[in-house]
Amino acid sequence: MVEYYQEISGFFVLRPLTMHIWGTIRKWFTSHIEEMGVEETSFPIFLSSKSLEKEKDHVEGFAPELAWVTKAGDKDLEVPVAIRPTSEAVMYPYYSKWIRSHRDLPLRLNQWNSVVRWEAKQTTPFLRTREFLWQEGHTAHLTEEMAGKEVLEILELYAGVYEQLLAVPVVRGHKTENEKFAGGYYTTTVEGYIPSNGRGIQGATSHCLGQNFSKMFDITVEDPYNKGTHRHVWQNSWGLSTRVIGVMVMVHGDDKGLVLPPRVAKIQAIIVPVGINKSTTPEARKKHESDIEDIRANLKKAGVRCEVDFRDGYTPAWKFNDWELKGVPLRIEFGPKDAEAQVISYARRDTGFKDKIALFHVAEKVPELLETIQSDMYAKAEKSFTEHRLQINEWEKVIPALDNRNVCLIPFCLGMKCEDRIKELTTRAEDTSDVPENQKLPAMGMKSLCIPFDQPEGIVAGETECLNPECKEKAQKWVMFGRSY
């Protein structure tokens, strides 16, 4: 899916399989936001230090990650320019220019691009890279209510990318003040769970920026309800990156390799010819290959992305392993015995289950089977996330729960300092045991993942204590905490 870029560390080559998945996500998401009236745009990759200064507080968190261009050829630039880590400072001066009246609202723009954040930490394919692909939407609205409605609409689309395309369950919620987007009013998020190590992972975020940026960049309109006065617009920003692919890989992958959901798989079904050997006559081989091509044609006509593995020099068993490694959802085997019985044999990548389908019903049954695989993959992942999302009322149970690869719903006061302290209290010494690296439990403390929209019962206002044993405040919400990426 990726290749390490040898020239500069922290960068990765995205291979065709990855780009197919990203392209599928892009097509699905674009079709939905276009229905909302969002238009596509493209802004330059560079921004000036002057622009950065205007939104100093917002960019402060990105400052250590900024990549600067200081030379053009052998000459120093008079004013160094930064490669965008995000595009608020690039885009919003033009929002100020384009928005003159409330009739210009809402202004809804989205761009698909790459951004650079020069991570100092160790990079990981998809999850933490110095350059990544994403979409970033930036919109402007007349009122808080209009902006808030869009924030939730976009968040639901992000949940759809995970749940409908990638078969990955997510929890929808708000970020705490500690974790929200710098300079924003509030942040909503979809949060996933990685079963292999019990970590939570941020899936995508949809932010209401409030009027913070419209005040910085002087984006105002005449108030239609109070003639002669002006009001600052309300803004949103929202983004989804190629991190989604990494989440999908970690949620579904197993010891044999990738397990791809059929809806995003580049190849949904691979046909592997079997039963052909040295004693097979050229005529029989030709007839067999013709039958296989007919099967492929029928499947493609039925909308299945299907290929045939006619590679010479490899045994069927080797090909089986190769396609399992690549995560193709369905393997179809077809040999002379299958032809005689007028069936195909198949094996599911997600479960390994094997069975046969009558040739007459292949074009009907294979698409149904692929949808079954998609729903079964989601159900398995959802069951795992549900079983490892524990509601905890006793502090002593928190660390054992984390060590058993769970995320925790705890009653929490929402205090920023309290949140920092919880992370400190749950951080333990590095694991120096002889356990293999990929099986070691993380040493980091837990942090808040989100305040779920779907709140369990059990918090009594003014009575329920915050779970932090050092905190004297009352709990306000159930908050999902966990070790995270």
From TrEMBL:
Metal-binding recorded as keyword: no
Keyword Phosphoprotein belongs to the record: no
Top class in the EC scheme: ligase
Cross-referenced SUPFAM superfamilies: C-terminal domain of ProRS (SSF64586), Class II aaRS ABD-related (SSF52954), Class II aaRS and biotin synthetases (SSF55681)
EC number(s) recorded for this UniProt protein: 6.1.1.15
NCBIfam families, A to Z: proS_fam_I (TIGR00408)
Protein name listed in UniProt: proline--tRNA ligase
